[in-house]
Design a protein that fits this description.
This protein is of the alpha/beta class. The chain is built from 12 helices and 18 strands. Helix 9 links the parallel strand 13 and strand 14. It binds zinc ion (2 copies).
Length: about 375
């Protein structure tokens, strides 16, 4: 239901990972499968789950006398084992053994290392396509006689960051997962209870917001997303502040909310490229302890306004306005005044003689 509500392209789903067989984690699956069926899905669908989900689905299909248009390929997850369960050219998925009332696994998604990027501005005329393709793999190009033709770093930029995401729900507090999820870009960790209900968390094999944050801190993850809150809590702010007091970079998992992953630049050139890789250009900021370097970077940013060690703010003495899709023209300062005056050119032709011409420009 939520997938439809938020208009996610569910026909693109080819792999579904189910952590365990408590109803709140798989009961929506049958509805999704039938929606895919009604949408004439033909592609295979891969389901990764603990033992039992295949039986449950077969029973539902049997008693509804339904035959799906597409094939479901069922992959059994071995409980209590950290295992690679999926891999293609761009991503790997590993199971993370968790501690819960029934056998349960989290999932660790990792993008594989990306190729170096060709710096198009530095390519030379007459370079062979096969050499450019090889440069992407990170090697230097040698001539048949063994001389260096193209040094890789002269023609390529560092690869883009490879992201990692760990999903850990449902689970009691477990330090065993720390090693496996160390340094991930984003950790989703359940936070069913607040710390004052720690005993209840232990009994039901769930975690508190503070425990989720302690795991995030110990594993030095970049960002923590907490969710799976008990229905008893009508306000989620207490869970957020409890977690943030231990791990500040925590956000709440609210359904339908889009979370932006932090993008990490590998160096200043890459940061400028990332900053300019947008269709907008109103304001930008550079934060640095080296003011000369800050100024050098600031002028390379495509924006109407750049502040070094400050936030974007307009000042009547300075022109303000954007570039690209952030608009055109300027307001404030003498540049702003020019936007509101017309230039009226008057050319007066004298009837005779070159000395008689007069030209006047009035603003
Ligand atoms: Zn559960
Ligand atoms: Zn649950």
């Amino acid at each position: 239901m939520q997938i439809m509500r938020f208009q996610l392209p569910y026909h693109k789903l080819n792999h579904i990972f189910i952590s365990h067989l408590h109803g709140d984690h798989y009961l929506g699956l049958t509805g999704l499968l039938f929606s895919m069926h009604l949408q004439q899905r033909a592609n295979d669908l891969h389901l990764y789950s603990q033992r039992g989900l295949d039986e449950i689905l077969l029973l539902q299909l049997k008693y509804s006398q339904s035959v799906l248009h597409f094939k479901i390929i069922f992959h059994l997850i071995e409980p209590d084992q950290r295992k690679l369960i999926f891999e293609d050219s761009t991503v790997t998925v590993e199971t993370i053994p968790l501690i819960h009332k029934v056998s349960c696994t989290g999932f660790l998604f990792r993008e594989k290392a990306k190729p170096r990027r060709i710096d198009k501005g530095r390519l030379q005329e007459g370079m062979l396509l096969q050499h450019i393709a090889l440069l992407k793999t990170g090697v230097d190009i040698m001539s048949p006689s063994g001389n260096l033709l193209y040094k890789n770093t002269d023609f390529t930029l560092p690869p883009k960051h490879s992201y990692s995401y760990a999903y850990c729900s449902d689970t009691a507090y477990s330090e065993k997962i720390i090693d496996q999820i160390r340094g991930v870009d984003l950790l989703y960790h359940e936070a069913t209870f607040l710390e004052d209900e720690k005993d209840k968390a232990l009994k039901t094999m769930h975690s508190t917001a503070a425990q989720a944050a302690a795991i995030a801190k110990a594993a030095r993850v970049k960002q923590l997303l907490i969710g799976h809150f008990s229905a008893r809590y009508h306000e989620l702010e207490p869970a957020l502040s409890e977690a943030q007091s231990i791990f500040p970079n925590t956000v709440l998992a609210i359904e339908g909310k889009i979370l932006e992953l932090e993008i990490r630049a590998v160096d200043a050139d890459d940061a400028v490229r990332l900053a300019n890789d947008t269709r907008f250009g109103l304001g930008s900021n550079v934060w640095t302890s080296d003011l000369d370097r800050g100024q050098e970077i600031a002028v390379r940013l495509d924006a109407g306004h750049t502040a070094v060690n400050g936030m974007t703010a307009s000042d009547p003495r300075l022109p303000f306005g954007g570039v690209k899709d952030s608009g055109y023209g300027r307001e404030l300062s003498s540049h702003g005044i020019h936007e509101f005056v017309n230039v009226h050119t008057v050319v007066i032709e004298a009837p005779t003689g070159p000395s008689g011409n007069r030209q006047t420009t009035i603003e």
